[in-house]
Amino acid sequence: MTQRQFATIAARAGIAQDTAHEAVTPPLYLTTTYRLKALGQAGPYDYSRSNNPTRDLLAEALAELEGGSKAIVTNTGMSACVLALQLLTPEDTLVIPHDCYGGSYRLFTNLAERKRSFKLEIINFQQPDWQQRIQAIKPAMIWLETPSNPLLQITDIKAACVLAKQLSALVVVDNTFLSPLLQQPLALGADIVVHSTTKYINGHSDVVAGALICADQTLGDELKWWANCLGITGGAFDAYLTLRGLRTLLPRMQQHQRNAEQVVAYLQQQPLVSKVYYPGLVDHPGHAIARQQQQGFGAMLSFDLAVEPAQLPVFLDALQCFTLAQSLGGIESLICHPGSMTHASMSAEAQQVAGIGPTLLRLSVGIEAIDDLLADLDAAFQQLAASVNTNASDAADHKPGTTAASPSSDHADSAECRLNPALTALW
Ligand SMILES: Cc1ncc(COP(=O)(O)O)c(C=O)c1O
C-alpha cells in the first residue's frame, strides 16, 4: 500500500457520506436500539451491541488499512485477544512467544492452566530451532507479537506463516506496536491481526479499545458472531474518537519515528546506558527481517541502565517530558519500567527467561519537539551520574559501624511505593 493511499483511506473514512443532513464529518450514533418500520421489517441495525453505524465506519477503515476482509471493533485490546482465542478448543495447542505483552501472557497462561481452554507452548522465536519446535508441537494457532514488548525482538512473519500453512495452523499477529501503516501481517500470510487501538491507532491516550481484522470473510463472520455473543464489541463513542485519531495516524507516526531515531542516537552514546533495543539499529539481531517486513522501525524502544536498580528513581524522578506511565502510542512521550509495570504479571523467573532485566526501561517516544526530549533525557542522566558518583564516594568513605541510610536505600523505598500494592491483585 502506498502512503498516499494509506493517508487517504485514514483521512476520508466516512467523510461526506451522511444521507440524512449531508454532514461532512460522520455523525456519532449513541443510540442503543433502532426502530423497526413494522413487525418483521427490521433495518440493517437493530441493537448496538450487535451493530452500530459509528463502529462500523471504524471497522471498515481498519479492514481496508490492514488489507483484510472483515474487522471487528472490540471494547479493549485484551478483548480482541480473547476473541481470537474463541477459535481454539481444549484439544488445540496455542504457541506463544516467550516475550509478549504481559497482559497477553497472563491471559494465555491463566486460560490454559486454570480453565484448560487450550494447551499452551511458549517458544523463544529468537532461537534457531523455533521452526523445528513448532513442527513437533503441531499447534492449531501461532501467536506472534513483532516487534515484541518490551524487548523489540523481531519474528519473521512470512516464515511463520509458511510453516503454519503446512501444519494447517492459524497465525495471529498482534500489530499494536507498529500499526497498519508500518506493517501489514495479512499481506505476509497471517490469518488474523489484533490491535490494542488504545495505542497508535487512536493515538491520544484517551480511549481503551481494540480491534481484530481477519483475512478471510467466513472466519471474520464467525468472530463477529462471537464478539456479539460474548458482549465485547466496542462502544460507539470510543469508536468515534478512535476514528478521529486514526485520521492523523500517518503524520503522527512520521513524527514519532523521526523523534525515536534521534533518541536512539542519543542513548547509544550515553555511558550510563549498557544496551539499546531498537530494530532500526543495524546490529539489532532482527534488523534485516524488520527492514523486509516493516515499512519503518516504529517509535518504541527500550534500554538497560548501567546502574544499580536502586538508582532507577533518581533517573525517573528527574524526567519532565517523559511521563512515568504504562501504555504507549499516544502523542506524549512515556517511560515505563516493564519489570514492575507492564510485565508485573510475569513471574520473576519468566521475566528473567524473557530477558527483562531489573534496570530495563521502555520509551514510547511522542511527537514533542525533539530538542526538548533530548534535553530532558540529558538532564536526567546528569542527575543519575551525580548520584552514582556520590554513592561511590560514600561507599569509599564508609566506616564499619556507620548506620546512616544511604541515598540508594531511600530510592529503593520510593521504588517500592511506585508499585502500588493496591493493584497487586490485578497482576
Ligand atoms: C502489544 C499489546 N497488545 C495488547 C494490549 C492490550 O490492550 P488494551 O490495554 O487496550 O486492552 C497491549 C496493552 O498494552 C499491548 O501493548
From TrEMBL:
Signal sequence bounds: none
Cofactors required: pyridoxal 5'-phosphate
GO molecular function terms listed in the Swiss-Prot or TrEMBL record: cystathionine gamma-synthase activity
Pfam families for this protein: Cys_Met_Meta_PP
Superkingdom to which the source organism belongs: Bacteria
EC number: 2.5.1.48
Keyword vocabulary terms for this entry: Pyridoxal phosphate, Transferase
Region (Disordered): 392-414
Family in the record: Belongs to the trans-sulfuration enzymes family.
PANTHER family: CYSTATHIONINE GAMMA-SYNTHASE, TRANS-SULFURATION ENZYME FAMILY MEMBER
Protein's recorded name: Cystathionine gamma-synthase
Name of encoding gene: metB
